[in-house]
C-alpha cells in the first residue's frame, strides 16, 4: 500500500482535510491512502508571528493553502513568484532541487509536497541569516 504514513506521538495533533485529530495516550501509526489529502502536523505549523523570513513566509503561504485558509487557484501564481525569488538566493544544486520539487508539486496541486520541499530550506536559511548577523 502506498501513501503517507504518519507516526504520531501521544497526544500529538494533526490537521487532515480541515479536521484537527488528536492522538490518544499511546504512539500510533496512520496510513493515509487518499492521494490528495491535506495534512499538517500541528507541531510543524508555522504561526503568523513566526513568518519573519523569506522562506518562512513562503512556507506559511503554502501552509494556508494546505489548511484550506487560502484558495489554491488564487494563491498559485503568488507562490510561484515567491519560489522564483528564493531561487535567486538559493543557488546551490541541493537548494535548486528543493525549489524545483516545490514548484512541480505546486503545479500539480500537491500542496503537502510543496510545503515539505520548502521546509527543507529552513535550516539553510537559518545558517545564511546567522552568517549575516540577523
Summarize the structure.
With 134 residues, this protein is an alpha+beta fold.
Rg computed from alpha carbons, rounded to a whole number of angstroms: 15 Å
Indicate the proportion of strand residues. Answer: 15-25%
Secondary structure: number of strands: 5
Output the number of helix runs.
Answer: 5
Structural class, from secondary structure content?
Answer: alpha+beta
- Shape descriptor: globular
Mean pLDDT over all positions:
92
Q: Classify the helix fraction into a percent range.
A: 40-55%
Low-confidence stretches: none
Number of structural units classed as domains: 2
Order of helices and strands: EEEEEHHHHH
What order do the strands of the largest sheet run in, or round the barrel if closed?
Answer: 3-2-5
Distance between the termini: 45 Å
Largest β-sheet summary: 3 strands, antiparallel
Amino acid at each position: 500500500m502506498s501513501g503517507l504514513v504518519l507516526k504520531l506521538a501521544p497526544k500529538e495533533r494533526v490537521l487532515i482535510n480541515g479536521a484537527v485529530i488528536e492522538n490518544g495516550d499511546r504512539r500510533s501509526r496512520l496510513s493515509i491512502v487518499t492521494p490528495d489529502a491535506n495534512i499538517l502536523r500541528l507541531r510543524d505549523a508555522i504561526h503568523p508571528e513566526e513568518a519573519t523570513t523569506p522562506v518562512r513566509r513562503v512556507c506559511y503561504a503554502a501552509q494556508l493553502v494546505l489548511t484550506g485558509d487560502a484558495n489554491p487557484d488564487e494563491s498559485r501564481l503568488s507562490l510561484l513568484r515567491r519560489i522564483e525569488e528564493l531561487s535567486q538566493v538559493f543557488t546551490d544544486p541541493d537548494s535548486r532541487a528543493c525549489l524545483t520539487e516545490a514548484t512541480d508539486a505546486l503545479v500539480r496541486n500537491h500542496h503537502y509536497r510543496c510545503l515539505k520541499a520548502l521546509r527543507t530550506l529552513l535550516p539553510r536559511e537559518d545558517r545564511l541569516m546567522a552568517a549575516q548577523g540577523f
